[in-house]
Specification:
The protein has helices at 2-32, 37-49, 52-77, 85-102, 107-136, 140-163, 182-187, 196-213, 215-225, 227-232, 237-263, 276-286, 291-315, 320-334, 336-344, and strands at residues 164-166, 169-170. By secondary structure, the protein is mostly helical. A hairpin with a 2-residue loop joins strand 1 (164-166) and strand 2 (169-170).
Amino acid sequence: MQGTKKESFLTILVPILAAVLGLVAGAMVMLIGGYDPFTGYSALLDGMIGSPKAIGETIRAMTPLILAGIAVAFAFKAGLFNIGVEGQLLVGWMASVWVGYAMDLPKFIHLPVAIIVAALAGAVWGWIPGFLKARYKVHEVIVTIMMNYIALNGTSWVIKSFLYAGNEKSFDIKATASLASPFLSLITGNSRLHYGIIIAIIAAIIMWFFLNKTTRGYEIRAVGFNQNASEYAGMNVKKNIMLAMAISGAFAGLAGAMEGLGTFQNMSSLSAFTGTGFDGIAVALLGAGHPIGIILAAALFGGLNTAAPAMNFVADVPAELVKIVIAFIIFFVAASYLIRLFLGRFVKEGK
């Protein structure tokens, strides 16, 4: 029991320490580059939470990151590394915009349908590498990386062929499919905050409940721990692999819907990845795969990304340094074994 308490304490402490070390390392880079880290971080903090609009934009940016982080973490639980969250996000984004533009329905039907279709599109895109993994032992990392590029170019082609409104963008969705909230925007200084944050939090709760309170969730976690033992115990390993990747893809598709139905109300014909799906990997790692940790990590990464321009304008510190800080945080999370080894010498049994 004491060992369990110690492990839980370290699980919470390690990501926090990794974030702190990342910020310290970023400050050292600023000093080497001739910038004032105190001024830079002050401007960064102000850009994150210094005004109602900054807070609204931080919450808006963290919304798809929560869902992307959940998508990565869910696959982790099954022992799978879903690098394809970016592609699943893109197909979910496109599906939500298509439904949002092409259908003419009452809002109480139109919005849920657009969200559900986005989740289904992401689920199908996630199921494909899951099927290939389960049926033919094809490594999911290779397949998901390839499918990211298929999604990027495929969605661009669909937009230009069927939804093109000019200026490299699709038609805007109808108001009946929108997550936009004039009320939330008003109280946050006309930010782009929308109702998607509620969906993201609900998704985090669903993830926790499914994995920890259902039989199927237990099987998925068991497969993640040991496939051979799970199969010996009578569990259908192949089915659980495909299901885990499909559910992971569904969460990623929802992340895309948050962008299409919430932030942008359309979809651009992209020539490069958004980065949200890849940031989801860092969010899942920093959040230790736990829903609460993922929400907090998404808040940090969302705030860092939205406040980077403020650091540049106010403190004259290049916005690219935020990416360096994020990279350092990921590095220290990846080096968590060394951090645990170091902390283990100072954490006594029973504390």
